[in-house]
Structures
1.
Amino acid sequence: MQRTLGTCYYPEHWPEAIWAEDARRMVDAGLTWVRIGEFAWSRLEPTPGDLRFDWLDRAIEVLGQAGLKVVLGTPTATPPRWMADKHPEMFAVDAEGRPRGFGSRRHYCFSHAGYLEESRRIVRLMAERYGRNAHVAAWQTDNEYGCHDTTISYSDAARVAFQDWLRGQFDGDIAALNTAWGNIFWSMEYNRFDQIGLPNLTVTEPNPAHGLAFRRFSSDQVVRYNRAQVDILRAYTSVPIAHNYMGRITDFDHYKVGDDLEIASWDSYPLGFLEDRVGADADHQRAYARQGDPDFQAFHHDLYRAVGKGRWWVMEQQPGPVNWAPYNPAPLPGMVRLWSWEAFAHGAEAVCYFRWRQAPFAQEQMHAGLLRPDSKDAPGMGEAQQVAEELAETPDVQPWAAPVALIFDYDAEWAWATQPHGAGLSYFSLVFEHYKALRRAGLSVDILPPTARNFSDRKLVLAPGLMHLRQDLKAALAASNAQVLHGPRSGARDGHFSIPDPLPPALPGLDVTVSRVQSLRPDMPVPLRGGGAVTGYLEELEGATAAFLETDQGAPVAVQAGHQSYCAGWLDSAGLDRLVHQLCKAAGVPIQTMPAGVRRRCTASEEFWFNHTDRPVECSPGTLPPAGVLRVPRSDRTG
Ligand code: GAL
């Protein structure tokens, strides 16, 4: 498949007289795609019902005539000011009960019926007008669902919709809900569904069953909202529909939104993420301040490849300093190229740079584009052009099913967030730390949803932290030929957040029971015999299954029987390296320890090597300069 580049453009920000020149320069730079429209509602409909599509008609025509393919965004992430007068209750409400205000974006509540109707209306108008436009080659719904903490809303509309959702979940049987949630505890029993409030503003913590149910409901509201847009678009267009997800936004189930779309895409801001959401210590942040974390982007590439069932893009790629992180350094020269090639190596169909020209006004005036505000090339432009030239030479990257897979489950993320049991313990971090250990071992990883049942391509499957481990997944993993890792906390709760009996993990083929659990202060690691430590979380195990990792006091930490293992602790990186090496040995997967900051990704026929450091590094295929990329034929067919 031909891999392509693009950019994000806002014709409504610029005089119409420069659109044609902008389009020509995009084509000259080697760009194929231009995404437009996703925040333009106030110009499409300045007052209710006053529709002004003429400028967008002309913008699409100018861009298309220049040879660009348009990705057209629906503008629903930015309801205009008049919408607030028309629907004063449309705002999302935060956990403190305060409505979000107008003056930025994403201020709507997913449950508000009036706003859903307005969204349907504007999407239908756009679909009718552009659904068959030859220049519109893809659509994007909305913009970054959930960004700025906007999935969960504690509004009246959400409360009523939640009650309905619960009625459906429990077939209208309030006694069944009381039993499933354990509402006899603290006299929390309900007589009717319409008595159930939202799990905020309680005196102390709400029932975790209530909290988890509300998270599941909130996720379903995003799926429903997106589907409402997709259903309309589908009636008018046959081109692919995408959404642009964000990094480490986990409040809704992206797999379920992805089921309704042809393409998953995400917005990659490596330097912003390092400061804002990787969760690394100060030394790591300093070392990678201009490069970004070596694994964070790759993790999301692999995750969104799964969300898109193979079809995915980077819809927004940082091309220079951003504006929104605590500190916003410029990328090391070469990193814009590296980030682009890393995305292609992981299977991206397209990489689009955000944004074409830096805006001289409003919130993002400190955010670089490919052009400066005065329209001269910014430093990122040269690297984008270099990628375009390299793609013209070798456009194809062959997809590959990696023998090593890692399961990521949004429901487990919500369960851990509902009951972390120790400060700072998050499922995302647990999974990401396993991912990093696999990558330090030079392995390529496929991320799988918890609905995966076919593991025939896999030699090793890691499934850490699945608090609600569904029986059919457990059985499919047990029946597979892969080495499988469970734990910690796997199967620790049933579907309604009660402790199951028999006690977890209750894995077929393993005689192991979690008899007690504890969380640990950051300053009380438990050393492992032979190196590494348990940090944060440690379970005590009973049973006859043999341990291959133990505490220095001889308590079992990781046990293995046949092709299944259970790890009872949150391991530090040295412990995780030992765990991964043991599992790979058992699985017959060769590892190749990477130099610090160097990462490898295999495709069907090639190996890509990436140097995320600011100095040259020797590695087996050759010398990698700072921010260097090496593309070589596969040396083996396994890792
Ligand atoms: C993204 C967003 C863009 C822009 C960008 C700035 O999250 O989709 O509209 O705000 O961040 O980095």
2.
Amino acid sequence: MIYFDNSATTCPSKGCIDAVTGELLLFANPSSVHTAGWEARKRLEANRAVIAKTLSASADQLIFTASATEADNMALIGAANAKKRRGKTVIITDSEHPAVSQSALKLESDGFKVVRIPTKGGALDLSAIESVCSSGDVILSSLMHVNNETGAVYDVKAANTLIKRLCPEALCHCDCVQSYLKYPVSLQGLCADMISISAHKVCGPKGIAALVLKKGVRILPIIHGGGQESTLRSGTENSPGIAGFAAAATEGFENMEKNKAIVLNLKAIIEDSFKENKLISFNRPPVQSPWIISMQVKGFKSEVLLRMLSDKGIFVSAGSACSSKNKKSPILKAFGLSDAEADCTVRISFSHTNTADECREFTRKLNEIIK
Ligand code: PLP
């Protein structure tokens, strides 16, 4: 099998699996008031500190959630409701993951005004942000760092700096699911108040993610109960997931530069091998994550090509896994592709565990299909 769908999810590392297994066996509830519970709490807090360090944050700034979808929901709905007396306008991009775009729809139905900033060609339209902010009514923004379908890296820091200058009351959220442990990610570095990350995109387990909160920022919980996670996210903590997340985060953080060099080479192998091929073209934003290739294969509907590659043991995706049931990708349309171009676009997404041989095998098999 050649697995090139790492933006959808990654293979958990050995360190992650060991950490999850160890914690599953210890199993006590970290909120229990007995020695086993206190020990579980100690381990959980140590793991929280480990993950926080990879974000240049302190442990108390990390709120664990069950997914980045939940973290995004919490950031948008929790922050908008906390700020609703100050204004009604929320800014997102027109290329957000459904975790953000659907939360924004919910806010619209609750009476907020949502403005979607164009990302045509793969760049944030800063002048559109400036004109929205001139109203002074913006209370919240949610601008993703790296796009999960095109790999576009948006200049979120410039956008957030602009928003903060024109609307100092606004809270800035950033979905860093596709940039965490690939680029340096921190609240300070992105001029953000909230950041979402997800463990299963970085060789950690599924079912664990986090919202990072700037100190002093107040949002409202969207899940109510026993008051865990500083009352912001009730529910017994997923201690095994958190242990696996911490192990994966440590490995990813220590090897960030090395991993980047690996995937840059993989990307170059595939792009170079199709340089002269008239049937293949690449969707290239001005700055693109080396972990993602977005390519058009003319004459082949992506669903059909996906199946043909899958039959040959190669797994890629059309758009994102989360939106692949939808007919057309709104993200590729927002990028500026025609329906026909979007229909023949496939996404290859790497992990540092992929190899040059896998890339050569992929190009050979794709050439067999399209020849
Ligand atoms: N945001 C982005 C940019 C994503 O790519 C994804 C998953 O693909 C998510 C959010 C949702 O993450 P999770 O699977 O942890 O809910």
3.
Amino acid sequence: MSSTAEAAAAPATLSVPSARAWRGLPSLALAIVAVLVASSFAPTSGYILNMVMQAATYAIGVAGLVVVLGYCGQISLAQAAFFGLGAYGVGIGATDYGLPFLVALLIGVGVATGFGIALGLASLRLGGHYLAMVTISFQQIVTLVLTNWIGLTHGPDGIKSIPRPSFPGLHLDRGDHYLALCLVVLMVVTWYAWRLKTSRLGRAMQAVRDNEIAASTCGIDVFRTKVLAFGISALLGGLGGGLFAGAFAYISPDQFAFGESIVLLTMALLGGVQSPFGALLGTTLLVLLPEWLRFLKNIYLAVYGAAVILIMVFLPDGLWGLVTNRLRRATPIEGTVPPLPLLSQRASASGEPALEIAGLAKHFGGLKALDGVDLTVRRGAVHALIGPNGSGKTTFINVATGLYRPTAGRIRLAGQDLTAAAPHERTRRGLARTFQNIRVFRGMTVLENVMIGAERPGNDIAEQPAAVVGRALAALDFVGLRGDANRLVGTLSYGHQRYVEIARALAGNPHVLLLDEPAAGLNMTEKGELGALLRRLKGHGLTILIVDHDMNLVEQVADHITVLNFGRRIADGSPRDVLSDPDVIAAYLGEPRENALA
Ligand code: ADP
Ligand code: MG
């Protein structure tokens, strides 16, 4: 089936998450008009105007935190620094160098984005707390430079009389007009961040946030995704800062210090860092809250702090999360979809080597988890890799999928050498896997989990949003979970989460599927269902390497069995020969056959 025909075959009634975002476009246009009309009633100067201006420009920067922290799960404590870089770009460019506002803004945003990408590059070597420390250091360096490079930045005195942009007929020197400009930019940014969440890139970011290892084996370039998240976040920070400089005409280093980064972070977390609307809400609240609490006089700061802490402790998803979690509906998705392609195309070149592994070794210090293992999975076959606990089966799959570097040996997929390829690169070439310890993307729905599988780079329909949804639903149909498509994956039973993993792998239309102990943790009924599922997959000619120590399951489906013991291959052949091999029986039962039967 051609890919265009397939896209067209996806029913129009499907609620396609990425298409839903585009539906916001007319409402965005309407809202912008509404803002422009409303802002003509705004005061042209004064206290209220300044407060709204501050909230609007901050909120643009906070939207950046939604991308990097909310979507991609990378904590950045330098958002005020990016905000400051944007502001100083405008300040220095428009006053000292007399550049037009827009040009100065572009320079500021460009510098901020460049440093954001550089911070993202640091994530190659550092993760978690260490990366957070690097962002703090960067924040401190920016503050030091802004304060001490007096020749460029005017030092602690700051920059005064920053002009606003001038467009013929717009009178942006008037407060209410400039506010309207800021609000329009804010709305476009909010819309972009909201749309991003349901785009392919946004899903990749959320996958990285929820499980980096699973993301990489789904074909996502984890490093590139993080760099992009940092870059977009810094860009939005710089944009907010640049508009801030125009709004207040005066900037100084203390406005962009570490404490402000914490304020921006608090705004995001308070409102809900998973959504740009949450960020908007949090920013508005945190700008207004001090005003509301003013009557408390001396104890105002304590009450303010306590209120923020209470909200964050009791509402981990922020205020916006409280609203959306209530409204979340786990309705099934109606409509028919084309079946999985693996069901319609039986393996043509059956019997040819699909995955060839030669002399594979993996040593952990002195422990030889794998020691010169040869194994060839043939196209269209179900190949079982069995062996006692700790014999190296999971290590074998981890090396084959690129999560571990082999100590020695070669790995070829469909004739191509992949020994040095990154995990996402192997997935792109058609390798898919599931995990012994389930690795699903917990913050996402069942459908979104499987869509990430369908979006595997190299998959025929990866670039077509509607077909991706169709393919994901087809995979869910295959494992019988269509009815749960809109549920959060964490609300499913353990057995069903395994099925989500299998569906995620199937949606990518893999050439070879590696299953690591799919029966682990399942009860007897579930094991029976899994056996039936595997027989159906086998019937469709999918090439599978299954790891298990449940002989029952293996005997039902395997065409070929390889046995490992202490990292060495001790048998390889047809199920009948291998299962009656005395060495295998001894390895399995830990003693000679006669004793075992006695
Ligand atoms: P299996 O999946 O067959 O039960 P594994 O491949 O998980 O076995 O483990 C094989 C051996 O390698 C075990 O002795 C295990 O402790 C060791 N091992 C596995 N992964 C690591 C690791 N990341 N670091 C050190 N040792 C490991
Ligand atoms: Mg294992």
4.
Amino acid sequence: MKYKIAVIPGDGIGPEVTGEAVRALEAVAASFGHQFTYEYVQAGGAAIDSCGECLPQATIEAAKAADAVLLGAVGGPKWDGLPGEERPEKALLRLRKELGLFANLRPALMFDELAEACPLKPEKVEGGLDLLVVRELTGGIYFGERGVRETADGPEAYDVERYSQKEIRRVAEIAFEMAMKRNRKVTSVDKANVLESSRLWRKTVAAVAERYPEVKLENLYVDNAAMQLVYNPKQFDVLVTSNIFGDILSDEASMITGSIGMLPSASLAEGAFGMYEPVHGSAPDIAGSGRANPMAAVLSAAMMLRYTFGLMAEAEAVEAAVKSVLAAGYRTPDIMTDGCIPATTLQIGTLIAERIAERK
Ligand code: IPM
Ligand code: MN
């Protein structure tokens, strides 16, 4: 198979970790007989420095012309002083909107080898944790009307939360499809006791659920969901929620796995197109030092193989390679524990690529 991938290395450790993800993809291409081509384009701080804007038109065009996008991370202290509209993070929001990436999949998976890093009591996570947050990504308060107005008492600012039935339905469908391939439970998270937009959310999700009789649907208010995630995380399979609630809950879910630096994500559009990126940020403090953990980026490439290219065996080979490198005891500093073997970004990438090649 032939696929075209737009690569947006971004800022901080972004270029290093996407470099290793591309090496993993090349190992897949070589051992499974595929051809991947890469077009490198800029976004975020790197784009501000080289073209004066965080998301150049050329980047949007390259992304649209590709089958999938691989992104590192954007942002850093260098650009923190810029006004909201010009910040590197704006590039992410615009990419999501321009590319129609309405469904954000954030798996929170606990790696057995890293179970010690889980901040919850061992009995809460016995047998491991494996849940999937499906976050709506192009609607809600992130993209609603906003502004600041002067009043007699001083300035007043507002951001509008708005959801159409269509926006809710399409992300709910993704959640139910995912649940069908997992443990057949969807927890829809909202604030329907207060918000009108949440009441439409709940009603719409219930209507979608009727088409999936094998899947159990549960509704939780967001405050309760935040509490249940630390109290009894094993009750969850797929969580589906709005843009802002998903932003918050996906950080919480990833933290409780103890593997936050290990987690990948996929942002999907209608059809198979998607953008894939590690959940971690640009970590400017360690950029260029060889300390970055490339596993989340590599696992993001695995998600690309699975969701956009439909290459299941290839995706599994990448995931197995990551697990095997962990099992052999190699660790970057973020996940280092006693008795493990210190390794650099490049070494981890090399070990993963070797294992992908061996597996075929
Ligand atoms: C995320 C990030 C972004 C978001 C920021 C950087 C705009 O926190 O991807 O979760 O809020 O969506
Ligand atoms: Mn976030």
